[in-house]
Amino acid sequence: MSRSFGAYLRRLAAAGGIAVLCSGVAPGHAAGPESVADLAAGLIDAVVNISTSQNIGGSRNLTGPPLPEPFQQFYDDLLRRDGRGVPAPRRVQSLGSGFVVDASGIIVTNAHVIEDADEITANFSDGTRLIAEVVGRDPKTDLAVLRVKPSKPLKALRFGDSQALRVGDWVMAIGNPFGLGGTVTVGILSARNRDINAGPYDDFLQTDAAINRGNSGGPLFNMNGEVIGINTAIISPTGGSIGIGFAVPSEVAARVVDQLREFGETRRGWLGVLIQEVTDELAEGLGMDRPRGALVSEVQPDSPAAAAGIQVGDVVLEYGGRPVRERRDLPRMVAETAIGQHVQVKVLRKKAELTIGVTIARLNENEDAGESGPGTAPHGGSSTQPGDNETLGMTLSELSAGLREQYGIGEGVAGVVVTGVADNSPSAEKGVEVGDVILEVAQESVATPKDVRDKVEKLKTDKRRIALLLLLNRDGEHRHVGIRLP
Hints:
Among the domains are: 162-263, Thrombin, subunit H, CATH 2.40.10.10; 269-362, Pdz3 Domain (Roll), CATH 2.30.42.10; 390-484, Pdz3 Domain. Strands 21, 22, 23, 24, 25, 26 and 27 form a 7-stranded antiparallel beta sheet that branches. Strands 1-2-3-6-5-4 form a 6-stranded antiparallel barrel. The protein contains 11 helices and 27 strands. The chain is α+β, with helices and mostly antiparallel strands. The chain is 18% helix and 32% strand.
């Protein structure tokens, strides 16, 4: 910066005109917190470093080309061979973070921090080291609760309201990055409701406060010193912070922690449906004005949904009075529901809205949640020539004993089997595969290739642009596809 320009800026600031250079943002809003020293000093004693260790047994050395010297010697020394080509057992240690939520000795951390650990130690800022036992863990939200036995009451933190936090609000993280011990970083809430494909209930807060390896399980605070998130993951090509970190919101964490403390496990609600995203094509095929909700592709037998009368092809628009804006909203809503609670579910069925009462059961955590959706399989068909049994690039056949055996289709399945898929056809683009069974077209059952062709032709006559198909694949998964009509 030149001296003249610097002098100009100083004169401009003195005259109160510096806000012009900040695109109209008032100086008070543009500045960060003046200091977080007092806030950090009052919280850091409740944040702990979690160290774990486990014994890793030896495994037989794999044969391969020798390494050039001196690397082979370093390799041999590192493995500490016992003379039989088997590395000696060794003890592996890892580090993470956690925080106290109850003065009696209850600590919260990430489930992955303590995974497979033989011994867990909580290290406090005053040098105290306490052996911790696992109260409970929940891999689906990556949370765990530990218990230590202190000689005196510990300083404990309290959960705040993550929903009250706005994007752009200041946040502070304390943790144990790279094993360095209590480290304070500050940033803002960058975004919320992030889905990073970590589990079925992803709803992460995103922050640019520096989070690195070892911060996992540590708290993310608001400026009132309340825990509004648990730092869990980062996106980084280098392993270090690039300003994209993710935290489990306190809205989710507090509920899971309470259940782990009380039961040693989570107790989630279960509806019993497989669902998929409502895409633009599916919305058009369903006669919806815009994509929204969660499309039911399968109703599990003996489930609350089956007992209540929810059907394949229903689009769940509201659950318990709350709008279901997209597919991933529904699993979280159901999981949060108390076991035995009666909930009103609004669905769209063949262009008509209706409300269905459902009594929620308990999810068996060892099984699929039943609120997830099947993926779209890649095209694996074969080229075909046009014929009487072809439509939309698919060759179709009635189900026969031979085809049932060839494609593993159960006797109770009724529909039309796909025996060929033309390359570069609309069906191929949507992942339709040989062996798939078409159960419905435009939410109406089909039994013969002619049924399929006739319904597709009627859609064309009605000037519809999308043919909505319900498919059953070889793995027994149902899914809807919207195929654009030529």
